[in-house]
Write a structure and sequence with these properties.
Layout (H helix, E strand, L loop, with lengths): L6 H21 L9 H14 L3 E2 L11 E2 L5 E3 L13 E10 L2 E10 L5 H19 L7 H14 L3 E2 L5 E3 L6 E5 L18 E9 L5 E3 L7 E3 L5 E10 L4 E3 L2
Antiparallel strand pairs: 1-4, 2-4, 3-11, 4-5, 6-9, 7-8, 7-9, 9-12, 10-11, 12-13
C-alpha cells in the first residue's frame, strides 16, 4: 500500500531533510584516514540528537547503530566497528533521521584521500546517475523511467547494478511501498504512475564487477560484492507535489 503524503506532512519531511543535511555537512569532515567507523557513527548520533531528531536506523529491529558504513567491496548495511579507515578507501555513509514522526534517508560514497582516476570515474558515474534519475521524478511520469535511467547510465559506463537492492518509499516508516529497482524489471507501462504526495528514497547501488552480492560471514547485516569489486551507493529522499519535485536531503 502506497501512502501518499499531505502538503503538511511533506513540509515536516522537508524540515527533517534540511536538518539531516546539516548533520551530513558537519559529519563529512570527520571522515578521514585513521578514524574508525564507530567514531563516525558516534558523531552522527550526537549530531542527529543536536538537530532535534533520532537516528532512523535504530528503529530497525536488531540494528543498534545510527549509520551504515560500508568500505570498498562492502555494499550496504555494514554496521560501524573498530575498523580503521585507510587512505584510498572508498566509504559509503548511509544515514537516516527521524524527525516529528517522519524519516528521511541519504547515502553518499566518498573517496578517503587520493584514489586513482578509475575509482574517481566510478564514483562520478553514480553521482551523475542519481541526478539524472531525480530529474525523471515528476507528476504523471512512471516509476519505470527512474529505473531505466539508472540502468542505462550504470550499464553504459561498464558497471553492474546490484539488482537485489532497491530504492523505496519513505515516511512514517523508513521503508515503505513502492520499491524502486535500479533496472526495469517489467514493461515500463506496467510501472506505477507518480502522483502528488509520493515521497521516495531513490538509490543507485552498483559495483565495478558483476554485481552479485553475498552476506559477510562475521555479522548478520553487512553485504559485499561476491567478487570483492568496489561498490558504491548514492541516495536522496525526494517528494512530489502538484507543482514541483523536491530533493529533501
Amino acid at each position: 500500500m502506497i501512502r501518499l503524503k499531505t502538503k503538511e506532512e511533506i513540509e515536516v519531511i522537508k524540515e527533517g531533510g534540511r536538518r539531516l543535511r546539516e548533520v551530513i555537512k558537519e559529519l563529512l569532515p570527520q571522515i578521514k584516514a585513521g578514524v574508525t567507523t564507530k567514531q563516525i557513527d558516534n558523531k552522527a548520533a550526537e549530531l542527529i540528537r543536536k538537530m532535534g531528531g533520532e537516528p532512523s536506523f535504530k528503529k530497525v529491529d536488531d540494528y543498534f547503530w545510527s549509520t551504515c558504513l560500508p568500505i570498498n567491496e562492502q555494499i550496504v548495511h555494514t554496521p560501524p566497528s573498530d575498523r580503521i579507515i585507510k587512505e584510498s578507501d572508498i566509504l559509503t555513509i548511509d544515514i537516516g533521521m527521524y524527525y516529528k514522526d517522519f524519516h528521511t534517508d541519504f547515502a553518499d560514497t566518498i573517496a578517503v584521500g587520493k584514489v586513482d582516476e578509475k575509482v574517481e570515474s566510478f564514483l562520478e558515474t553514480g553521482k551523475k546517475t542519481l541526478e539524472l534519475a531525480i530529474k525523471k521524478v515528476k507528476k504523471g511520469v512512471r516509476l519505470g523511467e527512474i529505473s531505466q535511467t539508472i540502468q542505462n547510465e550504470i550499464e553504459e559506463a561498464g558497471y553492474s547494478l546490484v539488482k537485489q537492492l532497491t530504492g523505496h518509499g519513505i515516511g512514517r516508516d523508513l521503508h515503505e511501498d513502492p520499491s524502486i529497482p535500479g533496472f526495469l524489471d517489467r514493461p515500463k507501462e506496467k510501472t506505477l504512475v507518480i502522483k502528488p504526495g509520493l515521497v521516495i528514497a531513490i538509490e543507485v547501488i552498483y559495483a565495478m564487477g558483476d554485481g552479485a552480492m553475498v552476506h559477510e560471514s562475521h555479522d548478520d547485516w553487512s553485504i559485499r560484492t561476491a567478487d570483492r569489486s568496489l561498490s558504491a551507493c548514492f541516495e536522496h529522499t525526494v517528494a512530489v507535489t502538484d507543482n514541483e519535485t523536491l530533493v529533501l536531503t
